[in-house]
């Protein structure tokens, strides 16, 4: 699993502040409280603003012991990459499409407001969630408990990966981001990040990456069954756990769900031994599997470099990502094309 620096969570009820010009950039807390109460049909909803998330995220806690998540657009001064623009729409559609699988997706879509009338921004409420956000309890857990949760995450991802679709790409119906070809969808995803990098004038071997994709498209063509993928899955602040049972019970964010090759998910970028034990054997046997593995490393490393330029963060290690990118390109250059 990718190592993620645990964000510090700001606890406590959101303070009600008067509406002013800054409300265009941050939802009015009283409006958030009102929207949460209306959606959950309760006047006793505790609202907490959580830090460490790209989209503004609030935890909504009721007297019943469960919690819900309200997610809205980031501040306007936060630069989003191309593939991040429609995440609320994507999550709403994903939760609706997967509602028939409560064994995998225990959360449901409670409310989705695609307009900004209610709180000054489009927003989505999902839940209920039982247990704790992993980032909140991780410091108090033993090494063995952490390994058990990592193993449980591997088992959870294995169950998600067993869900099949009819075409690759978006779970949303009626979008152009669907195809019968995994090669085409992966190429579109890679090209989106490449163009973000070019727009920002980041010094990277763009044409070299495009050429490696063209050279090895035959190995991607071997993937013919679309399966459920949650691309950005493994961050501690996205995982919900039962700390007593040391089990993963769900995920907070399904906005990066799509139909593809499960091994592109970030949880396979640098998996721990416990995760692999829970998931099962990883694909690294034949030439096609190794090629796909390096193409996926290339994608994640490229994304990390570009994201760092758009939103510099102390959590990110650009030099390590560039080293991973260089290693993947070197290996793809010497592996024979299929």
UniProtKB/TrEMBL annotation:
Q: Which residues cross the membrane?
A: none
Sorted alphabetically, which InterPro entries does this protein's record hold?
AGP_Transferase, Aminoglycoside_PTrfase, Kinase-like_dom_sf
Q: Name one Pfam family in it.
A: APH
Q: Per the database record, which ranges form the Aminoglycoside phosphotransferase domain? A: 51-263
User: Know the name of this protein?
Assistant: Aminoglycoside phosphotransferase domain-containing protein
């Amino acid at each position: 699993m990718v190592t993620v620096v645990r964000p510090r969570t700001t606890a406590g009820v959101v303070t009600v502040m008067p509406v002013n010009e800054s409300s265009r950039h941050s939802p009015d807390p009283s409006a958030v409280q009102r929207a949460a109460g209306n959606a959950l049909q309760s006047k006793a909803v505790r609202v907490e603003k959580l830090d460490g998330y790209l989209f503004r995220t609030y935890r909504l806690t009721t007297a019943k012991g469960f919690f819900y998540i309200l997610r809205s657009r980031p501040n306007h001064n936060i630069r989003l990459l191309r593939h991040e623009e429609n995440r609320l729409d994507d999550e709403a559609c994903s939760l609706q499409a997967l509602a028939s699988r409560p064994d995998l997706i225990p959360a449901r879509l409670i409310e989705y407001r695609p307009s900004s009338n209610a709180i000054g921004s489009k927003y989505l409420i999902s839940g209920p969630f039982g247990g704790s956000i992993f980032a909140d309890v991780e410091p108090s857990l033993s090494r063995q408990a952490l390994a058990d949760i990592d193993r449980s995450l591997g088992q959870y991802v294995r169950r998600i990966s067993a869900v099949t679709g009819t075409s690759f790409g978006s779970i949303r119906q009626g979008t152009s981001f669907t195809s019968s070809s995994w090669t085409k969808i992966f190429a579109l995803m890679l090209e989106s990040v490449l163009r973000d990098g070019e727009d920002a004038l980041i010094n990277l071997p763009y044409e070299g990456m495009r050429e490696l994709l063209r050279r090895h498209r035959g190995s991607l063509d071997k993937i013919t069954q679309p399966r459920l993928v949650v691309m950005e899955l493994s961050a501690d602040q996205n995982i919900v756990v039962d700390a007593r049972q040391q089990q993963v019970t769900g995920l907070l964010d399904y906005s990066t769900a799509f139909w593809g090759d499960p091994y592109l998910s970030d949880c396979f970028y640098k998996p721990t031994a416990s995760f692999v034990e829970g998931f099962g054997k990883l694909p690294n046997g034949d030439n096609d599997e190794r090629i796909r593995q390096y193409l996926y490393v290339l994608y994640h490393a490229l994304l990390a470099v570009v994201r760092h330029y758009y939103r510099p963060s102390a959590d990110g290690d650009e030099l390590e990502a560039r080293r991973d990118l260089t290693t993947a390109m070197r290996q793809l250059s010497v592996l024979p094309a299929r």
